[in-house]
UniProtKB/TrEMBL annotation:
SUPFAM superfamilies listed in its UniProt record: ARM repeat
GO BP annotations listed: mRNA export from nucleus; nuclear-transcribed mRNA catabolic process, nonsense-mediated decay; regulation of mRNA processing
Official protein name in the record: Uncharacterized protein
Tree of life domain: Eukaryota
MF-aspect GO terms: mRNA binding; RNA cap binding
GO CC annotation terms, alphabetical: nuclear cap binding complex; nucleus
Annotated organism of origin: Anser cygnoides
Length: 61
C-alpha cells in the first residue's frame, strides 16, 4: 500500500521522464493492483484530487 502512495505522489516530481510517461507507468501499476487495493487507490486519488482543487482555487485567488 505504501508503494502505491509513493508512486502516486512521485508522478509530478521533476525527473528525466515526461509527465505523460510517468502517468502511463502509474496507470499500468494501478490497473494491475486495482483488484487487490481498489478502496486504497480510490481513497488516494480522491485525496489527490481534493488537494489539486484547493491548490487551483488558491492560485486563482
Amino acid at each position: 500500500e505504501e508503494r502505491l502512495e509513493s508512486l502516486i505522489c512521485r508522478v509530478g516530481e521533476k525527473s528525466n521522464s515526461s509527465l505523460e510517461s510517468n502517468l502511463e507507468g502509474l496507470a499500468g501499476v494501478l490497473e494491475a493492483d486495482l483488484p487487490n487495493y481498489k478502496s486504497k487507490i480510490l481513497r488516494i486519488l480522491c485525496t489527490v484530487y481534493f488537494y489539486h482543487i484547493i491548490w487551483q482555487t488558491l492560485q486563482n485567488a
